[in-house]
User: Which sequence fits this backbone?
């Protein structure tokens, strides 16, 4: 029995599909987590990322339904995420409503709205074409997972470094970090703190929307309101797990997606390896990592603190 | 702009031509209060312009108008003769106006060069910014490492970053707001040297906002004095003397020693002021004989480490007897705040102990110090002194709500009565005990703190920067209260960066530097020079004429 | 501004916001081919007007209010607990486990259910408390992450017959379900004017009054508020942020756990069938959090808010018959919450400006 189990683990680890699935999950998380990371650097703990992903997936489905073009659908997906971001940003960083209330409400609202519209319209979707990069795709085990994916996957290879560059190498990024670390000082230096924060939320909306649409066309090809299923929260966990560094965040995405894919593959082979534990793993690992590192790893100093001029 | 070169004649200035900045009729109201009332001000290139006034005289508001943080209700701004509107700091920056802020404009987590680049427009080029930082620091002798993280710098170095941040934009007009509060006298001297250079060599206009007479007399070319939102006098500095300035500033003859201390006059001007100074030694005779009384507060070998191992307090020992006032002098950021925090039960000790009235008190344990009889007037009352969103009555009962409670339930009627009594006794200006604390003025908030702390009948009173941000009447009230408290047998620890205040009130003075006590002086031996040297860390001796005194003493108070 | 004018302004702003939210919902329904008025009618019928419905709504309002009260307490201490959904689930699980473990006659078992429900919620919230005050982990993150962990933990427990899973004979062909609570162990549901609701309604309203009183009038409440407004001033005045903060979180969790127990033993159409199943919490924790926030973290307004939100849920049951997908009620609820956030924000911003202006006498 135990030997069977270990041989099954061996099968899973040596099966390409484990890595392909893992890469798809990781990509979904990475799209969302990259934007979330930018938002958190500016001082917003954006918990509506779940809503942004779902909105992106649904807008993608709608886009394909009406245009039959995956490319257009992907763009509409990004816009779908952006729409949620605009509501979140305007409510929390212009009207100064509590960012968590707004985020939670948006999660519920979008879940209801997507479910409602899905039943009323029933949009159809498809698989995006795969793009295989010659030679690289032939690398054993990892090749297809990293270089034989549906084309929107490759956007990530540009998006992640671009986000890093944006935050650490541009004036916009500098001002954003200042807004996340010390909004009072940033304000005195002439930076519109809440504007930067809103923009960072827009960015999170765009990348999350992209991620949601990507997942729709890469993995399921049919919209369902459970398509995201709490993975937005895993993306937030990844940012925290990564200690608010982009590379740590990506590490978190890969780790959590790996666990997810590992469990699915084992299940496929008929082994129900404590599915609940594996599902809870990203959260347990993140909580554990925070418990160990919270006193050493420093979140942006003003994370989740609203900024109102003249009010500490 | 065009003919500015003609008047780059340096200090003193020749005849004024078209001013670099001209403010006319600036008026700003906040609710019913007029912060600036028809203020006119002209700044000229090549001159340092001092704006003198008490706290609350409207200087800060005027400057905020100039750099775009406050929009005036009325009035006009002309820059080089052109009428302009300044909506925000970016507008101001584009017009060449920059301000060196005291405490607020740096982001600790960013590097020096990133801070310098913050708030500019255009593309970000790190190498270009770094080169400029290096160039500026060489040009003005403001040595700094552009890659250093600002959070790890001392207060003096942080101010350098602020100045570089300003100069980097190559402003025509530089505003300094109370720049010396974080500096040693020596560093202040250096700063004024830099200012001269900035003005003389490059024809910039500099504004020095201050409430210290000596500073303004020493470092400026012309002076504008404000009182209650109005300009009450303006004159070339050569024609000014301390006495007339003080009179203009307060609106009456200045006689009280505490007032003179508040303006930095204690050691400055002995010609102009007529009253007889009461020496601290004489006052002491009024209080009970100190030697026969045991110690009220003893701190032994206290050490506190901050985040990342930074040394905040380093083997600090201190003893206070009942009825004496001990002043803690030092440049801001040398552990005074931590000392206050330890005595407020806010910070635990890594080593050492605190003994109050013979009993050891667990530092950092919530409320332990207050319970043991240590009252605190904190440096920043909004930080740990009051709860702005609670009522006056609630704030007065914060430490000991059980006084008006039965079985854990607070008796509303007794609460209001108790509070009302204190409101009357301490003359707290408010609409009633139920008024939210934020509706009170700063001075009245401070009285709430004072009332609450004194009514608990403490053994020790810690007063950290007790007069900061208060107006003259409130300062007088506060200093009288402190004296009275000591007279009543309470040990008073006065932590202040205003040397004059310390010299004025203390029986004994200790100097803090880098978290340690680096010297102790009796008030008879202390003066600005000896204190200044100790503060700068240039003397480790406890005697005023120790070996560390070979350096040239700072020139504070000398004429031009 | 006079009191009257202020009140009128509040009412007008709230009315305008609610109308705007409903108008937006109607646009969504109409553009997808549905009719809005029947939906509105169904909502009102399903929540109040139809026979027995307001009793049903009261039954749903109970756990919402309990969760909201807990949220109010932790919020007063300045803590952001957003993990009520998980605390509620764990509370329900504790109630189920100990109810069947200890057994006992009806009323006594009911007490056990309520006590252990509260305990379960408190324990779960205290995990976040421990992480916060021992390791410095922000409670907003840990409570959030623990929600998913709790759902998985319940899913696991419902697969183990030594934990929550019903014995073979009781579960029929379902594989993740607890035993059903016996008739005499359930919360009584007396009938009033043809409406049946659990007597926990009285308990919940009484608790709301108690919470309001404790926070406003007791020394404990005073110190808790002090902590929430200014932790450093509180620390100096002798309020231990660890002791008070951790207990506020625990009490908040206890209320959520109590809500879970009340759902389990209270019946009604919304909450399972006196059984614990996956998805048992059914977003009651999240919604209860929203109730507290819409009530602006005050106990008595939460009573009203809980009823309104409960009405949206019970009303949803009637919407399907109009031919419009019942999920529209989630949309209406979301839009309503967003709309309710606007008036206080607008007034806050304006008052702040005025207060600042007034407080800046000496700039």
Assistant:
């Amino acid at each position: 029995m135990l030997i069977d189990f270990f041989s099954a683990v061996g099968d899973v680890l040596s099966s390409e599909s484990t890595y392909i699935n893992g890469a798809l999950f990781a990509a979904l998380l990475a799209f969302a987590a990259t934007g979330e990371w930018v938002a958190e650097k500016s001082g917003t703990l954006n918990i509506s990322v779940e809503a942004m992903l779902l909105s992106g997936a649904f807008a993608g489905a709608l886009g394909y339904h009406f245009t039959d073009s995956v490319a257009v659908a992907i763009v509409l997906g990004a816009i779908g995420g952006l729409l949620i971001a605009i509501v979140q940003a305007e409510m929390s960083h212009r009207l100064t409503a509590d960012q968590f209330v707004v985020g939670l409400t948006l999660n519920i609202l979008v879940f209801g709205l997507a479910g409602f519209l899905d039943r009323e319209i029933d949009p159809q979707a498809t698989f995006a074409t795969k793009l295989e990069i010659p030679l690289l795709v032939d690398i054993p085990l990892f090749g297809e997972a990293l270089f034989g994916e549906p084309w929107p996957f490759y956007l990530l290879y540009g998006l992640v470094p671009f986000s890093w560059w944006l935050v650490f190498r541009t004036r916009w990024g500098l001002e954003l970090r200042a807004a996340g670390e010390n909004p009072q000082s940033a304000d005195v230096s002439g930076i519109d703190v809440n504007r930067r924060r809103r923009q960072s939320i827009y960015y999170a909306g765009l990348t999350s929307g992209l991620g949601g649409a990507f997942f729709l066309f890469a993995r399921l090809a049919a919209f369902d309101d459970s398509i995201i299923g709490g993975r937005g929260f895993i993306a937030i966990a990844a940012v925290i797990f990564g200690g608010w560094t982009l590379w740590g965040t990506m590490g978190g995405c890969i780790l959590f997606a790996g666990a997810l894919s590992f469990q699915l593959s084992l299940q496929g082979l008929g082994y129900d390896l404590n599915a609940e534990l594996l599902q809870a793993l990203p959260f347990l690992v993140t909580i554990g990592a925070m418990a160990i590192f919270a006193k050493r790893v420093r979140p942006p100093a003003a994370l989740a603190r609203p900024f109102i001029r003249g009010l500490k | 702009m065009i003919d500015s070169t003609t008047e780059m004649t340096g200090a003193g200035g020749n005849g004024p031509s078209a001013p670099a900045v001209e403010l006319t009729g600036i008026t700003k109201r906040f609710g019913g209060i007029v912060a600036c009332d028809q203020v006119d001000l002209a700044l000229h290139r090549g001159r340092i312009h001092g704006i003198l006034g008490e706290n609350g005289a409207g200087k800060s508001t005027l400057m905020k108008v100039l750099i775009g943080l406050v929009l005036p209700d009325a009035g006009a701004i002309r820059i080089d003769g052109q009428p302009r509107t300044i909506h925000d700091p970016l507008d101001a920056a584009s017009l060449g106006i920059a301000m060196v802020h005291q405490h607020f404009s740096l982001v600790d987590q960013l590097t020096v060069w990133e801070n310098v680049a913050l708030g500019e427009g255009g593309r970000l080029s790190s190498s270009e910014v770094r080169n400029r930082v290096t160039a500026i620091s060489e040009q003005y002798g403001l040595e700094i490492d552009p890659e250093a993280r600002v959070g790890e710098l001392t207060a003096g170095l942080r101010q350098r970053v602020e100045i570089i941040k300003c100069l980097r934009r190559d402003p025509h007009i530089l505003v300094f707001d109370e720049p010396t509060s974080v500096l040693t006298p020596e560093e202040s001297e250096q700063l004024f040297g830099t200012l001269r250079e900035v003005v003389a060599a490059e024809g910039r206009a500099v504004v020095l906002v201050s409430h210290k007479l000596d500073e303004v007399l020493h470092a400026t070319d012309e002076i504008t004095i404000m009182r209650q939102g109005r300009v009450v006098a303006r004159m070339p500095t050569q024609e000014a003397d301390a006495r007339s300035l003080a009179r203009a500033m307060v609106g009456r003859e200045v006689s009280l020693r505490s007032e003179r201390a508040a303006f930095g006059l204690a050691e400055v001007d002995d010609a102009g002021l007529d009253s007889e100074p009461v020496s601290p030694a004489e006052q002491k005779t009024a209080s009970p004989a100190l030697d026969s009384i045991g110690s009220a507060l003893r701190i032994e070998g206290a050490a506190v480490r901050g985040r990342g191992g930074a040394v905040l307090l380093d083997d600090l020992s201190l003893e206070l007897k009942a009825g004496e006032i001990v002043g803690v002098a030092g440049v801001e950021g040398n552990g005074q705040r931590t000392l206050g925090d330890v005595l407020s039960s806010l910070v635990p000790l890594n080593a050492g102990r605190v003994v109050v009235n013979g009993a050891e008190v667990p530092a950092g344990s919530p409320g332990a110090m207050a319970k043991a009889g240590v009252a605190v007037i904190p440096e920043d009352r909004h930080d740990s002194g009051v709860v702005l969103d609670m009522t006056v009555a609630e704030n007065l009962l914060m430490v000991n709500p059980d006084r008006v409670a039965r079985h854990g339930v607070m008796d509303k009627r007794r609460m209001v009565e108790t509070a009302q009594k204190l409101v009357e006794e301490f003359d707290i200006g408010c609409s009633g005990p139920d008024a939210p604390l934020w509706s009170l003025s700063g001075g009245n908030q401070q009285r709430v703190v004072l009332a609450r702390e004194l009514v608990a009948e403490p053994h020790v009173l810690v007063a950290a920067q007790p007069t900061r941000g208060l107006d003259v009447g409130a300062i007088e009230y506060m200093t009288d209260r402190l004296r009275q408290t000591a007279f009543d047998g309470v040990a008073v620890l006065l932590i202040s960066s205003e040397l004059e205040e310390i010299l004025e009130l203390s029986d004994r003075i200790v100097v803090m530097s880098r978290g340690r006590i680096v010297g102790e002086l009796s008030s008879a031996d202390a003066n600005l020079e000896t204190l200044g040297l100790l503060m700068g860390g240039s003397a480790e001796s406890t005697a005023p004429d120790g070996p560390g005194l070979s350096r040239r003493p700072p020139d504070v108070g000398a004429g031009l | 501004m006079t009191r009257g004018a202020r009140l009128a302004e509040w009412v007008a702003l709230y009315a305008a916001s609610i109308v705007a939210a409903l108008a937006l919902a109607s646009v969504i329904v109409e553009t997808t081919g549905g009719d809005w008025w029947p939906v509105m009618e169904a909502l009102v019928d399903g929540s109040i007007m139809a026979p027995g419905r307001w009793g049903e709504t009261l039954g749903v309002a109970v756990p919402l209010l309990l969760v909201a009260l807990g949220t109010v307490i932790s919020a007063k201490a300045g803590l952001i607990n957003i993990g009520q959904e998980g605390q509620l689930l764990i509370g329900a699980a504790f109630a189920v486990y100990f109810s069947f473990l200890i057994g006992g006659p009806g009323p006594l078992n009911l007490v056990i259910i309520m006590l252990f429900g509260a305990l379960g919620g408190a324990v779960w919230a205290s995990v976040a408390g421990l992480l916060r005050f021992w390791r410095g982990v922000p409670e907003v993150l840990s409570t959030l992450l623990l929600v998913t962990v709790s759902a998985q933990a319940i899913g696991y427990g419902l697969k183990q017959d030594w934990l929550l899973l019903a014995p073979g004979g009781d579960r029929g062909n379902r594989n993740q379900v607890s035993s059903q609570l016996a008739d005499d162990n359930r919360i009584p549901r007396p009938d009033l004017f043809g409406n049946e609701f659990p007597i926990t309604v009285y308990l919940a309203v009484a608790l709301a009054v108690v919470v309001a009183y404790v926070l406003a009038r007791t020394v404990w409440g005073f110190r808790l508020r002090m902590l929430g407004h200014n932790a450093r001033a509180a620390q100096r005045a002798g309020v231990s942020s660890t002791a008070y903060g951790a207990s506020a979180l625990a009490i908040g969790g206890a209320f959520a756990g109590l809500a879970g127990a009340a759902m389990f033993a209270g019946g009604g159409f919304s909450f399972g069938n006196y059984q614990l199943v996956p998805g048992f919490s059914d977003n009651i924790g999240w919604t209860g959090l929203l109730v507290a926030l819409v009530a602006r973290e005050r106990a008595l307004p939460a009573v009203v808010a809980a009823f309104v939100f409960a009405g949206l849920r019970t009303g949803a049951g009637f919407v399907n018959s109009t031919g419009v997908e019942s999920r529209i009620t989630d949309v209406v609820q979301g839009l309503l919450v967003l709309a309710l956030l606007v008036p206080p924000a607008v007034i806050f911003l304006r008052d702040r400006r005025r207060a600042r202006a007034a407080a800046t006498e000496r700039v």
Remarks:
- Chain C has one domain: 57-312.
- Confidence is low (pLDDT under 50) at residues 359-363 of chain C.
